[in-house]
Amino acid sequence: MSITSVKRKRKRKNKLVGQPSSNVPAIKHKRSDELPSFPKGDKLNPEDYIRLKQYLKEKKNLLKTFPRILLNARGQLSQVNDCGYSENPLSPSDLNELILYSIYGPGKYIPRWSSLEMQCNLNQTCVLIIDGCAVKTVDDFLNFKSSLPMFSKYKFLPPIEIELPPSWCADYDEPTIADSKTSNADKLFSGSTFNQNGNVDVKEVCSRTRLLLSLHQMMIHCYPLPTNKRQSKMDYNSFRFTKNHYLPVTDKSPMFAVDCEMCYTSIGRNELTRVSIINEQLNVVYESFVKPSNKIINYLTQYSGITALKLKDITTTLEDVQEDIIKILPPDAILVGQSLNCDLDALKLFHPYVIDTSIIFNLNGNKGSKSKLKLLAKAFLDMNIQCGNLGHDSVEDSRATMLLVQLKLCKSLTYGDAYLVGQQRLAQFVNSKTKINVKHIETFKKFLALLKSVSESSAKSKIHLKRNLVAAYENLWSTAKLEVEEHTTNKAVLEAVCKSMEDTTNRFCMAHMQLKNKNNLGLVNRWCEKYWAAMSSFALCAVLFTGCGVEGKNSVCLLNVKQPPLNHLQDCKEHGDC
């Protein structure tokens, strides 16, 4: 830059502040939290100019810490044009990436079509889905935009199109018998509590006899059975029955949780080295270390927790343990455990009445798939077990299995069983003669992958659904971190989700509602206004309207991050929150 241009620029600046062309002296000024007051007129003196410059600089730096969302070139291609559709709609996976990025932060999930700046300062992520808008024509879209002024009022991003169809169950508006039972079970479970000792005061809804494995299931899952001798690799000649005579099992029959630890011996398989039995009050009724009859080659300490020192003075044999268990168990006892067939093999015992937590809980919907006890305990009980490298604790594992069974008893037969839930809901729709769009089912499941990922995070989450939409959320149920609630009306859904958003410990909040009259968009605008007002500052808001786009087969999504009012700037600086 030439000297002449520099002088010309300085001359214009000095003219603004009312000074001759001499240099303006630097004046130090303390940081101000409020907009400074200036004398009326067109010109500022040097001190006022520097004060204003300092204030604007601080405000600019403060605003940089506010989270905001921007669309890149890919995202702009998905913006809805005046005809009501976009050049290149986003997929449900694209939307999932943004929402999961807002929860998890940088790492596994990175949105490729948008930029979420200052994600670390987000307080919440809130999603609202409204089914049934039926925006199919240009006139429908123009009416849609004009009927929802709140989005322009609060400066939402332009609407973007997403390949998310209306819920495939949206036309099914009658609560089923199973839904009613589940709702009643949830109400009853609200009265069941965990007392200070960790015991469960259970109000059972599901019969414990319904959780028992059938003979067919016991054969499939390789349980020791006297009728299975030829098919099994085990030598069942040395096995014993837990009783000489059994009584019929009832809902009053006592349950005992069993867990064993094993070590690898010279005969080429695992043998019993520890056994624990817990009653329904979570008290230990039997606990013993066991000396195997064969030489231990590998203690498997990282799994069993057994060491040579623990077995040094042990003289108890497997036969002693068998005798003790036979004396302890009543003739109608129900044994509870995780993959209990392995424990009965180690104990060399036959028992007819068993409940297996690896079978009655199914997390992925695949028949025969089993989840680890550690995962089940964390997901449903919020318990951390099998931590560290010191091996498993058979007492701890037994208590976890007993608590899981007691939880299912006071919920329902389908609780925690994704396969059974899927089969039940499919049967309900077949019987109701509802037309099911298979493409809609598969596409909506891609969106549900979001909720599966949310449930795996440590974030506390709440989901509120209108009851007739619940069937679309196959394989989704409440866990320790993710709570799913059903409601009979849209009003109840909206009130419940607004209450959930007021609690900022709920990191993720979602509501799914249904509009029955597409012309009643004024009501929708009031819903969205109330939803937006209940959100906390620095919350990401995503509102999806299904039934939009080309021929009404997709969804329109509006995004924004709620910013605090301008008077919040001073509070932020004083408390150091921003």
CATH architecture of the largest domain: 2-Layer Sandwich
Helical content stands at: 25-40%
Distance between the termini: 38 Å
How many domains comprise the coordinates? 3
- Mean pLDDT comes to 79
- Separate helix tally: 19
* DSSP summary, beta strand count: 19
For this structure, what is the CATH homologous superfamily of the largest domain?
Ribonuclease H-like superfamily/Ribonuclease H
Taken as a percent bin, the fraction of beta residues is 15-25%
Briefly note the structural class of the backbone. Answer: alpha/beta
Overall geometric form: elongated
Kindly report the spatial arrangement of strands forming the biggest sheet.
Answer: 4-19-18-3-17-15-16
Protein name: Ribonuclease H-like domain,Exonuclease, RNase T/DNA polymerase III,RNA exonuclease 1-like, exonuclease
Family: Belongs to the REXO1/REXO3 family.
GO molecular function: exonuclease activity; nucleic acid binding
Domain Exonuclease: 254-414
Give descriptors for this structure.
578 residues, 19 helices, elongated
Structure explained in plain terms:
With 578 residues, the chain is of the alpha/beta class. The protein folds into three domains: 3-63, no CATH class; 68-172 and 460-562, no CATH class; 194-409, Ribonuclease H-like superfamily/Ribonuclease H (Nucleotidyltransferase, domain 5), CATH 3.30.420. It is built from 19 helices and 19 strands. It has helices at residues 3-17, 46-63, 73-77, 92-104, 138-146, 150-153, 177-189, 215-220, 301-304, 318-328, 340-347, 357-360, 373-381, 394-409, 418-432, 438-456, 490-502, 521-534, 568-575; strands spanning 68-71, 114-117, 124-131, 160-162, 193-194, 200-201, 240-241, 255-265, 270-278, 284-289, 296-298, 334-337, 349-350, 354-356, 460-466, 482-487, 506-514, 539-548, 554-561. The protein has a seven-stranded mixed beta sheet with strand order 4-19-18-3-17-15-16, with helices on both faces. Strands 8, 9, 10, 11, 12 and 14 form a six-stranded mixed beta sheet that branches. Strands 1-2 form a two-stranded antiparallel ribbon. It is elongated. The chain starts with a helix and ends with a helix. Mean pLDDT is 79; it is low at 15-33, 169-200 and 571-578. It is found in: Nucleus. InterPro entries: REX1-like_exo (IPR034922), REXO1/3/4-like (IPR047021), Ribonucl_H (IPR013520), RNaseH-like_sf (IPR012337), RNaseH_sf (IPR036397). Keywords: Exonuclease, Hydrolase, Nuclease, Nucleus. Pfam families: RNase_T.
